[in-house]
Amino acid sequence: MIEQSVSSPPQGGPPHGGPPPGGPPEGGARLPVRPDAGRFLILAVVFVCAACGLVYELELVALASYLIGDSVTQASVVLSVMVFAMGIGSLLAKRLRPWAAVGFGLVEAALALLGGCSALVLYASFAWVGESRFALVGFSLAIGVLIGAEIPLLMTLIQRVSRQDAGGTVADLFAADYVGALVGGLAFPFLLLPWLGQLTGALLTGAVNALAGGALVLWVFRRDLTPRSRLLLVFVNVLVLAVLAAAAVLVDDFERAARRAVYGDGVRVAVHTEVQEVVLTGGRGEPLDLYLDGRLRVSERDEYRYHEALVHPAMRGPHGRVLVLGGGDGLAAREVLRYGDVRSVTVVELDPGVVRLARTDPALSALNGHAYDDPRVRAVTADAFAWLRGVRGPDRSDGVRGDEDADDGTYDVIVSDLPNPGITASTKLYSEEFYGLARGALAPGGRLAVHAGSPTAQPRTYWTVDATLRAAGFGTTPYRAEGRLTRFTAGPDRVRGGPPATGDWGLVLAAPGRPPALGLAADAPRLRSLTLPELASDAREAADSRRADLPPSTLVHPRYGG
């Protein structure tokens, strides 16, 4: 028969999805609602569980990218491990089909607890242990197994209340599952992350997951449960909700304690902006440190070495109009403004929160010399690639205007003060296409200064930047600046204990056509760390690490590595 009552018991065993011997009588589920309503409620729970499952998945990817770095690798690890584990979970769920109702209730309670607490545990392992990779793989595996067990158990439950053919049932289940995944995938970046943050967002998702799974089993299928099973499910779900609620109440205290473990006791400002987490430590007589997404970006102890080396060699020549890409902290603009004949400085920064802090935080604004109070400085909130393309690219139909102070929409100097090229999110800003846009924004005789990673620690990355600039039509002059890493830094480069380590910044001065001469302008201000002999020495030391014949990096083939 093509269409058969799915509630008929299979031969040689308990009813399909029914309870073990001693449970409710064989046959269809004894529902407190009509079968159509029961089917609708099951599909609604499929929708909710799918949304929660995808939130857990995205939460792991986002937090791993923040704590470990290299978002492509972390996403690949989480997704591949989770999909593999889902297959295992589906196979294991076959053994639970005779106890589908109580099995689904316990699976959802476990998933709510693990998924809801996953962000807390990952952050704790990073803060106090210093390593979160093993926890990441463990959570991906466990959550994947539990998600994989959901559909077989739900398939069993819906067949007990619906006389629809198996193909139609599968189609309905997967439709609800995919739509739920869509909602969860959109809710995570647009609702949960900006409104609640990673930790509270995961806890709330776990609570919703537990309530949906528990309500379905304890209400719709309560007559199929033995008193002992019903008591067990009530106890487990109440316990899970209590743990999630307690964690939500204590999450702020936990986050403060974890920040102290990561950054020390000097945390003064910690905000989640529209783009990233921004932390300021020190100030008020102590050296100021700026962290973005857990990575040390600015240290008052030696930032002047970096910013002087980045900006001043590029100012040798015309420098009336200057464009700073990145540099929302205002420190590169500070160095540019030391030249009295600079007429305009445009700062293109992705994160308006960093610019706000650079304007308003007393310690950071003092460090940048109150650069944003200068009428010559104009801050633009935009992605540097998109902004260059919109203003300078071949398609200007979006109506984006250039710098009003620029005579022909070009700049004498462009300073690329961007995160390291090895960070996945920054790769496009070190591509041949990006440098082609930058070249089009340069006035005749203009220069481009690029922060390119460390030639000592990451020579392949550094020289790939150089090769990419040359492929975009630039002549290049590589050099470096010596700096110091603090005894404790966060993120993938964190170093715990021991004396301060020495390090360096790799820089490239570029100009269309021939390599520009490395030097200082005749009207250069007095510098704390940079002299002509030091520049010559820094260029020789950078050249010692040269890697020849490296291919350029492009948007479709990024080539940055260690």
Automatic annotation (TrEMBL):
Annotated Pro residues bias: 11-24
CDD domains: AdoMet_MTases (cd02440)
Subcellular compartments: Cell membrane
Membrane topology per record: Multi-pass membrane protein
Binding site for spermidine: H307, D329
Binding site for S-methyl-5'-thioadenosine: Q276, E349, D383, A384
InterPro entries: MFS_trans_sf, PABS, PABS_CS, SAM-dependent_MTases_sf, Spermi_synthase
Annotated transmembrane regions: 40-68, 74-93, 105-128, 134-158, 170-193, 199-219, 231-251
Annotated catalysed reactions: S-adenosyl 3-(methylsulfanyl)propylamine + putrescine = S-methyl-5'-thioadenosine + spermidine + H(+)
UniProt KW keywords: Cell membrane, Membrane, Polyamine biosynthesis, Spermidine biosynthesis, Transferase, Transmembrane, Transmembrane helix
GO cellular component, one term: plasma membrane
Ranges of compositional bias, category Basic and acidic residues: 537-549
Region (Disordered): 1-29, 537-562
Domain PABS positions: 248-512
GO BP term, pick one: spermidine biosynthetic process
Active-site positions on this chain: D417
A Pfam family recorded for this sequence: Spermine_synth
EC number: 2.5.1.16
Enzyme class: transferase
Family label: Belongs to the spermidine/spermine synthase family.
Job description of the protein: Catalyzes the irreversible transfer of a propylamine group from the amino donor S-adenosylmethioninamine (decarboxy-AdoMet) to putrescine (1,4-diaminobutane) to yield spermidine.
Name this polypeptide is given: Polyamine aminopropyltransferase
Species per Swiss-Prot/TrEMBL record: Streptomyces liangshanensis
Name of the gene this protein is made from: speE
